[in-house]
Every structure is written in C-alpha cells, then in structure tokens.
Amino acid sequence: QSVLTQPPSVSGAPGQRVTIACTGTSSNIGAGYDVHWYQHLPGAAPKLLISYNNNRPSGVPDRFSASKSGASGSLTISGLQAEDEADYYCQSYDSSLNGAYVFGSGTKVTVL
Amino acid sequence: QVHLVQSGAEVKRPGASVKVSCQASGYSFSTFAIHWVRQAPGHVFEWMGWVNTANGFTKYAHQFQGRVTFTKDTSANTAYMDLGSLTSEDGAVYYCAKAGRGYWFDAWGQGTLVTVSS
C-alpha cells in the first residue's frame, strides 16, 4: 500500500489537459516536503519529469507542470500527446519511520 | 549525459542472496548518493535505501534492515546492492537511482529483474 495516493487512471483526447492528484499526509507533503514526478514506460527506466515542485529537467516539454497545496500535489499535462501515454508516479520524503522516500500508487494515462 | 547501467537478470532460490551492480557514468560518481528502489509485479515503487558514494555511509529502509547491504567501488564508479534471505516476495525489478540535489532521483538505471523460485 502506497503512502501517497493517486488515481489509478486518467484519460484524455489528444490536445486535452489532464491532471493527476497526489495526496499525502502530515508527515510527508503536508510537512512541507516537495513533490516530484516521474514518467514510467513499461520496460524502461523511470524518467524524472518535475522536481522541487515545478522544475523541469532539460528536455522535458513545458506542457508538463506541477503544483502543491497543503498535503497534496498535482501534475498537469496540457496539450496531451500520444507519446504521453505512460504511468506517472509522484514521490516525496516522509519524516516518519526514521525518514524514507515514498512513492505514489501510480496513475496510468491513456490517450484516447 | 548521466547513465546508470545495471547488471543482468537473476534467478535465485528461496533463501539465497542476490547482488546487483549499478555502473555510473557522465558525472562525478562520488558527488551524489545512489539509491535503490524496487517494484514488484503489480506493486508500487518501494524505496530500499541509499549509499553515500563518497564515504560509503548507508541508510536502509526499516523493512530491509538486516537483510540488505549497499556498497560502492569508487574506482569503478559502481554501486552494489546485496539482498539476502530471499523469498518469493522479493521477486521484483530492482533499480538504482542517482540522487538529485534534494529529495528526488534525477536518473535511474534500466532495472534488474530478480526472480525467486524453487
């Protein structure tokens, strides 16, 4: 069971905007720790999409954006494209259990 | 460009140990920690811990303490994860990941499939 909760799936047509929520608790996101986002294609290495709440590494399109409020974060894909079909995971740090990196349950994005 | 290349798939018997390597390139190996994360089939990512690639200090997630050992060979730019007393529940893809400048991972290895079967 994940420490961070995400919807199992979201879908949208090409060009549409989709948002993935990531809900945490008072010991992780709610404690002020940042939310980071990864894209994972089957059989491939996970790829960092956004770090430190809304910083995109070089090469990540600007249609990916993120925000955080309270104990939750969200990832928005604006202008959905076919190559965006993948699994998306949020990740944060949790100060309980002597400190641990925690992940979301993952969201499958389907491009209709 | 940062690359993390892991060793190949392993098949182990219950009770055995497995050692996975992770060779880094494209950056100064000793500057950033290497983390280990696993994902069992149909399960979420599970963080296992990290190794300080400069001094070898390690931190293990509580559920793995006593059963996992992280080491590093700075001369080979390689980190290692050794997991013992394997059970079928340890069957998973194991990833190494380079620490970012905060609590995130900015590069991942391709993953190593570990199968535990009698």
Observed structural traits:
heterodimer, A: 112 residues, mainly beta, 6-stranded mixed β-sheet, 3-stranded antiparallel β-sheet, 9 strands, B: 118 residues, 7-stranded mixed β-sheet, 4-stranded antiparallel β-sheet, 0% helix, 51% strand
Itemize the secondary structure elements and their pairings.
The complex is a heterodimer of chains A (about 110) and B (about 120).
Chain A: E1 9-12, E2 18-23, E3 36-40, E4 47-50, E5 64-69, E6 72-77, E7 86-94, E8 100-103, E9 107-111
Parallel strand pairs in A: 1-9
Antiparallel strand pairs in A: 2-6, 3-4, 3-7, 5-6, 7-8, 7-9
Chain B: E1 3-6, E2 10-12, E3 18-25, E4 34-39, E5 45-51, E6 58-60, E7 68-73, E8 78-83, E9 92-99, E10 105-108, E11 112-116
Parallel strand pairs in B: 2-11
Antiparallel strand pairs in B: 1-3, 3-8, 4-5, 4-9, 5-6, 7-8, 9-10, 9-11
Approximately what portion of the residues of chain B adopt beta-strand conformation?
Answer: over 45%
Oligomer: heterodimer
Number of helices of chain B: 0
Q: What are the secondary-structure elements of chain B, in order, as H or E?
A: EEEEEEEEEEE
* Low-pLDDT runs of chain A: none
Element pattern of chain A in H and E: EEEEEEEEE
Beta-strand percentage of chain A? 35-45%
Structural class of chain A: mainly beta
Q: Distance between the terminal alpha carbons of chain A, to the nearest Å?
A: 29 Å
**Cα shape of chain B:** globular
Q: Give the averaged pLDDT of chain B, no decimals.
A: 96
Helix content of chain B: under 10%
Radius of gyration of chain A: 13 Å
Please state the overall shape of chain A, judged from the principal axes of the Cα atoms.
globular
Number of helical elements of chain A: 0
Structural class of chain B: mainly beta
Q: What is the strand tally of chain B? A: 11
